[in-house]
Amino acid sequence: MSKDKYHHGTLKQDMITKGLQLLNKQGFEGFSLRKVASMCGVSHTAPYKHFKDKDELIAAIVLEVSESFRDSLLESTEMHPDNPKLQIIEMGKSYVKFMVENPEYLKFLFLTEHKYPVIISNSKLMHSEGTPFDVFKKSAEYYLSSIDSDRESYYIHTMSMWSLVHGIALLIANKVIEYDGDYLELVEKMINEKIK
Questions:
Q1: Which of 61, 16, 38 is nearest to 46 (CA)?
Q2: pLDDT digits over 128-185, tens only?
Q3: Number of C-beta neighbours around residue 133 at 10 A
């Protein structure tokens, strides 16, 4: 059985997974379809059955990483649709858990050049729709509305909450914080302290 036959049916996903590893290790400059094919154990022509060029593979990686993260956050918000405080707590925990359990996603999304930045202008947050941050922002604003927070200050409260959970995620994922209990309980306490 040839290597290409062995990968039949899974090569596309394998290339996305290995491509992410390569991007995290060598960046965009060191990325090539040939290198990804080698990592997958297939011929250098095999990737072209699924991707016309390296940019198309990179786009597929970006989409998978972003959608996985977004879906994880959405799932947590759906646990408490009628309780904004519990929703923001669960979403914060989900944010940290996703990043801790998927460090390769964390590195790709936030430790490389970001193509979809959040722009702060005139006390408003401008960002791409359908992104993980979009889910976070909507949940944060739902909570802020429930406590009658001034709409003009939504942007600063949202950025503060985002910075909190993102900072916790980085600290735990990089083992700067090592907690001898359930780290999600620690995350919940920290979020509660911020929003009470």
A1: 38
A2: 888 899 999 999 999 999 999 999 999 999 999 999 999 999 999 989 999 999 999 9
A3: 21
> Could you tell me the maximum CA-CA distance found in the chain, to the nearest angstrom?
66
CA angle, 163 as apex, 158 and 165 as ends, to 5°?
Answer: 100
Supply angle C-alpha 54, 55, 57, rounded to 5.
Answer: 65
pLDDT band at 112; cut points 50, 70, 90: low
Closest CA to 108 of 173, 73, 59, 62: 62
**Long-range contacts of the stretch 6-10 (C-beta < 8 A, 24+):** 6/41, 7/40, 7/41, 7/42, 7/46
